[in-house]
Amino acid sequence: MDSLFNLVIMCGLIIASLTGTMGRSLHIENEVKTLLKHYKLTGPEWVGKAVFSPYLGKADNTCTCEKLVLLSMLNVYMDIFSDMMNKSKEKKAVLEELKKSVALLKANKYTKEQAVWQQLKEIESLEVRKKSTCTIQGGALNNFRSVYEVASTAGQVKKV
């Protein structure tokens, strides 16, 4: 009896886990449709105006969070060295040498991260709060589900 009960519980858990994301995806789809109707973004002029989808799958998987943080630090060092050069000309040669070293390091070891960094800056620079941003909001809303699905599976650990 215990083994039958355990089997039923196991099957229930498997079914719940398999339908959990599908149910959430359907819920999100319904919410998006509601918003599209409410904001009158269902016309043909909104089809194909993807805002974020062009960025999906563009980041190289060898680009890590740590390397992005390091690139950010290197960028700040470039700003610091430039600021120091502007404040004092007596160590200009040393600071220029440091800037050259950082630039060379970035060019040789951080090219993929620089491309991702540029994409992040482009995404963050999107104007989404102005009154004239209906096109961006409509396009973003139209491709929200696909972005959400990619984002929800991206953090999953792949089992080998």
From TrEMBL:
The keyword ATP-binding does not apply. It is found in: Secreted. SUPFAM superfamilies: 4-helical cytokines (SSF47266). Its main location: secreted. InterPro entries: 4_helix_cytokine-like_core, Interferon_gamma. GO terms for biological process: immune response. One of its GO terms (cellular component) is extracellular space. One of its GO terms (molecular function) is cytokine activity. Keywords: Cytokine, Glycoprotein, Secreted, Signal. Residues 1-23 form the signal peptide. The keyword Signal applies. Belongs to the type II (or gamma) interferon family. This is Interferon gamma.
